[in-house]
Amino acid sequence: MKTTPAVQLDTVTLKLGQADFFFDCTLAAGQVTAITGPSGSGKSTFLNLVAGFETPDGGRILLEGRDVTGSHPGERPLSLVFQDNNLFAHLDLFTNIGLGLDPGLKLSAAERQEVSDALARVGLAGYEKRKPGTLSGGERQRAAFARALVRKRPLLLLDEPFAALDPALRLSMADLLAALHQETHNTILIVTHDIEEVRRLADEVIFIDAGTILFHGEKRIFLTHRDDDAISKFVLPS
Fold first, then answer.
1. What is the mean pLDDT of residues 82-94?
2. pTM
3. How many CB atoms lie within 10 A of CB 39?
């Protein structure tokens, strides 16, 4: 039975300053796709196009079969987690996460319980009244995951979410993300420059170089790919 792709970039073109980008790919639903490549290659631009922060000059962007090329980010069926986790410093965690359900915080009793349940699922039970400034970097990132959980969107985009964390915490957060994916079965796109995150999390890999997709395929094939110098340097760093 044919299923609708989660993400389709149909001959998408974009020019930013002197940089030209061209993306053409289809991503199946329910998979974790690592978006990787050298610094400045276009990884975040790829994610921004999917999210709606950039509008292509040509081509189409489809999410779950719907053309969203001109749609506002808030109208797209996705949640985002960034490196800086985007928590409001003056608000407690309950409010930060509740905003993911209703910007006006008009929450039902069931929705208020959802917020507490989401905190518990990421290991922050009882943290509802804590402010972001009282938390460690890993705890703030867990809170950002909790906000994504309550939104219940089918597509989760992450832009180097663990880059500011120490190596041990990066592994712990990667394990948490993998566990949450097993629970929700949503589609995940994660921008990363860390080969260990690719090995730990990805089902498939998109490798971007100089604004275009150099490789798109299964992780096991990517990790043994030796036909391109840029990929070889990433997989087997000196």
1. 80
2. 0.87
3. 6
Res. 199: pLDDT tops 60: yes
The answer to whether residue 120 scores a pLDDT higher than 80 is: yes
What DSSP letter does each residue of the chain carry, written as one string?
-----SEEEEEEEEEETTEEEEEEEEE-TT-EEEEE-STTSSHHHHHHHHHTSS--SEEEEEETTEE-TT--GGGSSEEEEETTTT--TTS-HHHHHHTTT-TT----HHHHHHHHHHHHHTT-TT-TT--GGGS-HHHHHHHHHHHHHHHT-SEEEEESTTTTS-HHHHHHHHHHHHHHHHHH--EEEEE---HHHHHHH-SEEEEEETTEEEEEEEHHHHHT--S-HHHHHHHS--
